[in-house]
Amino acid sequence: MSSLHDRVVDSLGRTITHGAMPPGTIMVAEQLEQDFGVSRSVIREALRVLESLGLTESVKRLGIRVRSIDHWNVLNPHIVRWRMDGPDQGAQLRSLTELRAAVEPAAAVLAAQHAHRQAKDTLLALAAAMRKAGDAGDVDAFATLDTDFHRALLRASGNEMFAALDRAIGEVIRGRSTHGMMPTHPATITLDRHEEVAHAIATGDAERAHAALTHIMHRTCRELSPVWEDAPRPEL
Question: Coiled-coil stretches, from where to where (predicted)?
Answer without folding.
Answer: none
